[in-house]
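Entry 14. Structure prediction run on the chain below.
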Amino acid sequence: MKSHTKTTAKKPLIGVTMHYDHFDEVKKGVRYRFIREEYGQAITRAGGEVIFIDGSISPRRAAKLCDGIVISGGEDIDPALYGEAKQGSAWIEPLERTLFERELIDACDEIGVPILGICYGSQLLNIHYGGSLYQDIASQCGARDHGTSSKAALGEIIFKKSCLGFKARSHQSVAHRHHQAVARLGDGLHVVARALDGTVEAIAGRGHVGIQWHPEADGSADAIYGPFVRSCRLGKTKRRATLPLRRGTRKTLWRKPTMSQLWS
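Output returned:
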């Protein structure tokens, strides 16, 4: 008799970058890396496995190890990185983290690994590809309350295009925790959602998605992380780029998922 063995596909491994504490936020004189536990919970619920990463692993090693990357929230990004002087930002995310994540983005692009940017992470994707930010949307754009890092403000957004678990023209109430937002779009990126006051709330392009709100803090988590983790699973099993090994043999490698896979 033939034996039948049930095989279970490995869960996609999602690397999540962490916040760098250089401001004595946890304990004076001690530097920490930390992150909200809801990131890992949302990814696990979506069917993925999680590792938390920082500069102790090389960006290329992290990109090769992971099936997807989440660049988590953080403080403001140094405006010198998009050619502007600082205009009143209270806290700047340590450059050590930002430079590590920029190398990580490059490595993901080279290998073909999708990225989900959350708040700071969305802004970093935009800056990395040549875009800029409004440093304070209230004073520069007359925007309504979009919350702070310590207190969320609920607000409605409208999707211009289908993205992840949301259809075009759909509305969603989300938890805002930002006072900055996309100004000039980076090359190859486009807007997929805006707040009612016009503030850019989601961008996509180059195989990546950036969202300005915090889905792990509101009811939109499953609609964000679910489709993202599924796209990483598709990429894990269906990317078919090839690399010559020796004459007559070829090795199967990953291929970046299409935007239709990310927007399903």
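The chain has one domain: 13-262.
Filed with the rest of this week's runs.
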